[in-house]
Known about the structure:
Layout: H1 2-11, H2 14-33, H3 35-52, H4 55-73, H5 92-101, H6 105-120, H7 123-128, H8 131-134, H9 137-142, H10 145-164, H11 177-180, H12 187-223, H13 229-249, H14 251-276, H15 280-296, H16 298-303, H17 313-328, H18 332-339, H19 345-376, H20 382-389, H21 392-401, H22 406-435, H23 448-465, H24 469-505
Helix pairs in contact: 2-3, 2-12, 2-24, 3-24, 4-10, 4-17, 4-19, 4-24, 5-14, 5-19, 6-19, 6-22, 10-17, 10-18, 10-19, 10-24, 12-13, 12-21, 12-22, 12-23, 12-24, 13-14, 13-22, 13-23, 14-19, 14-22, 15-19, 17-24, 22-23
Amino acid sequence: xxxxxxxxxxxxxxxxxxxxxxxxxxxxxxxxxxxxxxxxxxxxxxxxxxxxxxxxxxxxxxxxxxxxxxxxxxxxxxxxxxxxxxxxxxxxxxxxxxxxxxxxxxxxxxxxxxxxxxxxxxxxxxxxxxxxxxxxxxxxxxxxxxxxxxxxxxxxxxxxxxxxxxxxxxxxxxxxxxxxxxxxxxxxxxxxxxxxxxxxxxxxxxxxxxxxxxxxxxxxxxxxxxxxxxxxxxxxxxxxxxxxxxxxxxxxxxxxxxxxxxxxxxxxxxxxxxxxxxxxxxxxxxxxxxxxxxxxxxxxxxxxxxxxxxxxxxxxxxxxxxxxxxxxxxxxxxxxxxxxxxxxxxxxxxxxxxxxxxxxxxxxxxxxxxxxxxxxxxxxxxxxxxxxxxxxxxxxxxxxxxxxxxxxxxxxxxxxxxxxxxxxxxxxxxxxxxxxxxxxxxxxxxxxxxxxxxxxxxxxxxxxxxxxxxxxxxxxxxxxxxxxxxxxxxxxxxxxxxxxxxxxxxxxxxx
Length: 511
């Protein structure tokens, strides 16, 4: 047993494990000590990357989407992520459930309720036309094809690396080996891995800034309480940590069970709102119109940079979203690639678009158009409330309060969001646990103590940040800035995959 522990320690990459965490904690301390100064400095940095160099994100976004289509439709689509005759380990539903819940699913649920009214008050919508025509278009655009392309192209690259080439270094840098060669084992590889883990930790900490206030508000509304939001949020975080830690320590069986339960609740919510909310006709017809407008204007929406800054819409929204998804591309694609063993590249990409994009679009159409239908029929004026207060969280609870059997819907939304966070953190904790090892064979799981360590560490930072809203905003800026180098690494990974896949298809089965 002693020897086994010594071997385990030798295999752990302490630099990759501890340095990014120490850096993020150091930043948090700086934010606490000098929040105003750090906010000002980070805002300037964010302006430089997000505004001055904003076209960089737009080019990468459209480029990777086009590459995903090319890859799925080309000869590379026939490559099996595993042995040539291997069958998928998971059914399509189980695979799709784990894939969809591995990323920003809780954020998707939050923005499905709220994003249309955020756009409705934006000058860009007034430039284009009416709220009815455009407020439902941008949510579908920002959460569908391009962001999911980030996930799916990288997922097949990682799946090819793990299941076909059987590489034992399960790290971001290893996916760049066909391009970097021997430099992968040097400082170039170390820098890539440090950037990846830093972005992952920062992104994980900040994602709770989106939905936890809503969850706390729902708890207060559901039970008629007036508790301090901070206390409720911390309780929710601790419960979430316990659930995802329990599921992760039971391996993929626990993760798949939690993911399927989450999907059942999610689609149950959508069906209930669609059939019993009283806006069925409006939801379907407006959703169909919005989807058609996204398809018709896809390339224009993907390349619009507002050079004269008449509204700064792409800088505030499109570029921000692309950057945010890039930060999350450190974890989710690795997880999707690992569970895609036995599927072809084509099945992974097209199946991912079908389940991931399909579920996302349905969520935005049903939940967003429910309240937009009430707005356009003058039943409730949500826009006046939002313009006056700017409080999306209270407005969402007001929206849910208009639904039949509102307490039931409150409970369903709360449990679904907790489940979404649990499944997202499962995939993150598993991915970052594999990062802690110098080598890990295909199918080999990290030690349970390493998994437990990361489960606890990933939740401590969000709990600490709950006490300082300015620090949360600052760290979110750090995660967006972190997306700039991550975007370049993503391009290198895609390039490496296409190079290696071409070599594999030409008959070089061994690297």
